[in-house]
Amino acid sequence: MNGFHWRLAERVSRLLYPAERNAVLGDLAESGESGWQALLGLLGLVARRQAALWKEWRPWPALAGLTSLGFLLTRHTARVAHLRAI
């Protein structure tokens, strides 16, 4: 398991739980896939896990709150920058 794609796959695997990470990397090493195929498979697995977290309602209010807070902060910063420039 050496090469650029394998090193990148190992970095992406850090998004998984440690026990799951070891199992997935072991399976990929035993399968004989190329580094590129392993990286694509791992990216797909991580994307599916992250998408599953967004199926519940709890992350959505946090996202809405952070988005509105970011918008207000941007407006305030622009106002202060304009006043400082004058």
Provide the descriptors you would attach to this structure in a database record:
elongated, 80% helix, single chain, 86 residues
Question: From N to C, what is the helix and strand string?
Answer: HHHH
Shape: elongated
Proportion in β-strands: under 5%
- Which percent bin holds the helix content? over 70%
In round numbers, the mean pLDDT is 90
Describe the protein's topology.
Blueprint: H1 4-12, H2 18-31, H3 35-53, H4 59-85
Helix pairs in contact: 1-3
Could you describe the 3D structure shown?
The chain is mainly alpha-helical and 86 residues long. The chain is built from 4 helices and no strands. Helix 1 (4-12) runs parallel beside helix 3. The mean pLDDT is 90.
Summarize the structure.
With 86 residues, the chain is an all-alpha fold. The protein contains four helices and no strands. The longest helix is centred in the last third of the chain and has 27 residues, at 59-85.
